[in-house]
Specification:
Layout (H helix, E strand, L loop, with lengths): L4 E3 L3 H5 L9 H10 L2 E4 L4 E3 L7 E5 L3 E7 L5 E3 L3 E2 L2 E3 L1 H6 L6 E6 L1 E7 H10 L1 H25 L4 H12 L7 E3 L3 H9 L3 H13 L3 E4 L2 E4 L2 H7 L2
Antiparallel strand pairs: 1-2, 2-10, 3-9, 4-8, 4-10, 5-6, 5-7, 5-9, 11-13, 12-13
Length: 228
Amino acid sequence: MNATGRHLATAADLATVPMLTHVTGERLHHLATAHPVRRFAAGSVLLHQGAPATRLLIMLDGQATAVVNHPDGTRSRYPLAAAPCVIDKAAVLAGGAYPATWAATAPGRALPLGAHAFRALLSDQPQMREHVLRYLALQVSQTRTALAAGAARPAVTRLAHWLLAASQSGARPVICLPAGQQGIAEELGLSRVTVNRALQQLTREGAIRPRPQAIILLDLARLAVMTG
């Protein structure tokens, strides 16, 4: 991870991370003192695709996106990850290599946690273990649903669904696009031209207003109708 400095977190910092919410105060204090936090700038590469998955990142601030480069020259993108969150639990548990390159889209702080320390936490913190299992199971379920839906749904329907999910059910009326329309295309498995046409249709319907590097949601009810 390209870092701009090493600092210490506090137990209160770590307690904001959903995975660590139920970890005991003593263990959080130990984590904070034993594992220095790294500050990173926007554009910093946090994890490299193909590198050994020996640690995860506990993101305290900032946000990041991940790109998978495929052998045929194409690439796909993961959904934007905003702190507080953890990257990349699944890769560390599976061993092997990181399946994607994670890069920061906003400055922030992250605490790198080695695989051994992560497994030790899972072993002696049952509530954290249950949280991780539920999270990974939900990811599998969402991936299966997305694959099934993507094979049949029109592009504008998929995009409307993506916008609603990105808005967290309307809590965020502005969807930031650090990678622009190309980022949406890579995440949905569509071409940039197809995404642009779908955005134009949603704009004509009065559901959204595109802006450089962002989309403003105007009519959530209309977007919901278009997901069906």
